[in-house]
TrEMBL record:
Protein name: LuxR family transcriptional regulator
GO biological process terms on file: regulation of DNA-templated transcription
GO molecular function annotation: DNA binding
HTH luxR-type domain mapped to chain residues: 172-237
Pfam families: Autoind_bind (PF03472), GerE (PF00196)
Coiled-coil ranges from the UniProt annotation: none
Xref: Gene3D superfamilies: Transcription factor LuxR-like, autoinducer-binding domain, Winged helix-like DNA-binding domain superfamily/Winged helix DNA-binding domain
Length: 240
């Protein structure tokens, strides 16, 4: 499967509730050949505990296990995602190496034997975490695992904005910072698949200036990259 971040972003614009979100992430996971998926959003709050919400297709019995805070603090995958912005492809060895083999055996009973997990740490203390899991080993072909991982990262960037609005609607700003006409132009042409050089030619500006406008727009929108910025601008109705 080939994933296009902008296409996935467009597909998630109409997600209106938890069921829609779960269907979207589950469809993606199954296309990637994983049976289970978990998507979680979190908001750091000064002076109080982190607020979070999630959707998953896990069995209720396992859901109760996952909600154990003490267990999560010992989970090597969760701890990796808490500290890093890079994905982790994990298996039994990941747990055994840190003396958490029993935890792996506990979750393996529910089909959580291997998986790939990725966390996005966003501006304003917001975080998005997504994991795809299954009861089979990951492919031996390293390139295939890299393909799966890359697809997961692109999908995460595309779907996280919708996940934030659906799961923690009160945490997202309703009105974004104003973008200049040139910043909107660069976002609009990026949506059309144009490179910075092509945008510069279209707008009769230098490539460096085009990049600066795009970076400024991405920053004002509180996004992690240009694909994320396109998705958010569309959701906010800034692009027509």
């Amino acid at each position: 499967m080939t994933v296009d971040a902008i296409d996935f972003g467009l597909a998630t614009l109409d997600l209106k509730n938890r069921d829609d979100l779960l269907k979207a992430v589950l469809s993606f996971a199954r296309d990637l050949e994983f049976e289970q998926v978990t998507a979680m959003v979190a908001e750091d709050r000064i002076g109080s505990e982190t607020r979070f919400a999630w959707v998953a297709n896990m069995p209720e019995e396992y859901r109760e296990i996952c909600e154990n805070v003490t267990r999560a603090k010992c989970d090597p995958v969760m701890q990796h995602c808490k500290r890093h912005g890079t994905p982790i492809a994990w298996n039994q060895t990941t747990y055994v190496t840190v003396d958490q083999g029993e935890q792996w055996e506990e979750q393996a009973r529910f089909g959580y034997c291997t998986g790939i997990t990725f966390a996005l740490h966003l501006p304003h203390g917001h975080h998005f975490w997504i994991g795809v899991d299954r009861d089979q080993e990951l492919p031996n072909d390293r390139r295939e695992v890299e393909r799966m991982t890359g697809n997961l990262m692109l999908f995460a960037v595309s779907v996280q904005e919708a996940a934030m609005q659906v799961l923690l609607p009160t945490t997202r700003e309703r009105v974004c910072a104003r973008l200049t006409p040139r910043e909107l132009d660069t976002i609009r042409w990026t949506m059309e698949g144009k490179t910075a050089w092509e945008v510069a030619q279209i707008l009769s500006i230098s490539e460096q200036t085009a990049v600066r406008h795009l970076n400024n727009a991405t920053h004002k929108l509180g996004c992690v990259n240009k694909h994320h910025a396109v998705v958010k601008a569309l959701r906010l109705g800034l692009l027509h």
